[in-house]
Design goal:
Blueprint: H1 2-20, H2 24-56, H3 58-61, H4 64-73, H5 75-89, H6 97-114, H7 119-143, H8 148-167, E1 172-173, H9 177-185, E2 187-188, E3 191-192, H10 193-211, H11 213-223, H12 225-230, H13 235-261, E4 263-264, H14 273-283, H15 294-313, H16 320-349
Antiparallel strand pairs: 1-4, 2-3
Helix pairs in contact: 2-15, 5-10, 5-13, 5-14, 5-15, 6-7, 6-8, 6-13, 7-8, 7-13, 9-13, 10-11, 11-13, 14-15, 14-16, 15-16
């Protein structure tokens, strides 16, 4: 009798264990929904920001003119943030991009206003100077092994000094009206052309990272440079190229900045550095969480600007913009660490 009772109890135990065992298919569905939530969280937050400020002040905030201004006014920030993505993806920082933008803007104006060069020649010279800046950054970081934070901070300071030197600390107006038309005056769907240049660059970089071998190598290097080197990836060449690409895009942003402002001064462009970093890190929490990506950066730029615009419409002071960007950067870096922590926990659990 006791043997039969033991068998019965064992069968009941097994049945109970089977009844409470997790369903693998249900777990997979839950994981998919959680991943989808992570990927779309920033988009949802952007929609909520628009909804909240739209409800508080619908006549102004929800007007077509307001959204046209939001998109048109952030072309330079979008371009600079997309350029900053390249070194970030490969595991480096570039603190010189904003100073590069300011220097490129002033150089373009000086070449046109003081030296009378045509717009085409001036743009070519500016872009060539941007490539040289990128090569110098790459040499310091890859060739000499200097930490990217120190190297680009130093180069950025040098560029600030050069911008002040060639401009004599003055603001230059009288740049080519063609440049102003191509960046600010000509519009598509009521939005300045400068914004559409940013859209094109977003699509090009997305194609680079998703569909090309070079893009996959850049992502691989950013994950683990030493493993990439042992796998035969030319790490030095990839990182050097990323620095050149970032500097070239920063110079392009300087050209467009000159066109949108209709003038150039040696200091105003420096304020783009913090917003660009905030957009890149915040963008890495969406679309492809845990990875710097162009679409996430695009969404982050306009999420931040939509919030700042709403606060300004509600009467907030100008310093709120700096507070907003600073807090967004800190929050974005903290959120960007979450996917990495989850991966570590899964490895420990396995």
């Amino acid at each position: 009798m006791s043997a039969l009772a033991d068998k019965k109890n064992g069968a009941e135990k097994n049945g109970a264990e089977q009844s409470v065992a997790p369903d693998p298919s249900a777990q997979r569905v839950a994981i998919r929904w959680r991943d989808l939530g992570q990927r779309s969280a920033l988009l949802i937050a952007w929609v909520l920001v628009i909804a909240v400020f739209g409800a508080l002040n619908p006549d102004i905030y929800l007007s077509a003119a307001n959204f046209q201004t939001i998109f048109s006014s952030q072309a330079v920030l979008l371009l600079l943030a997309l350029g900053l993505l390249l070194p970030l993806v490969t595991g480096n920082l570039d603190l010189s991009v904003a100073a590069n933008l300011a220097f490129s803007s002033v150089l373009l104006a000086v070449l046109q206003v003081q030296h009378g060069l045509s717009l085409g020649v001036s743009v070519v010279v500016v872009l060539a100077a941007g490539m040289v800046i990128g090569m110098v950054n790459g040499f310091l970081i890859v060739g000499l092994g200097i930490d990217s934070l120190i190297a680009t901070l130093g180069i950025g300071t040098v560029l600030q000094g050069l911008a002040l030197a060639i401009s004599d600390g003055q603001t230059f107006s009288g740049v080519s009206p063609v440049l102003i038309d191509l960046t600010a005056n000509y519009r598509l769907f009521g939005i300045a052309f400068g914004f559409w240049y940013g859209v094109i660059l977003t699509l090009l970089l997305t194609y680079l990272f998703v569909f090309t071998a070079l893009g996959r190598r850049m992502l691989f290097v950013g994950r683990n440079a030493e493993v990439s080197r042992l796998s035969g990836v030319p790490v030095a060449r990839v990182q050097w190229g990323a620095m050149v690409g970032a500097a070239l895009i920063a110079s392009m942003a300087g050209v467009i900045y000159t066109g949108t402002q209709g003038a150039a001064d040696p200091t105003s462009g420096l304020g783009f550095l913090l917003p660009a970093f905030a957009a890149c890190f915040l963008g890495s929490t969406a679309i492809q969480p845990g990875r710097f990506n162009p679409v996430g950066t695009f969404v982050a730029v306009f999420f931040l600007v939509s919030g700042i615009t709403g606060l300004q419409i509600m009467g907030a002071q100008s310093y709120v913009q700096q507070l907003f960007y600073g807090l967004a950067l800190v929050l974005a870096v903290a959120l960007a660490k979450l996917p990495e922590r989850r991966r570590r926990r899964r490895k420990v659990a396995l």
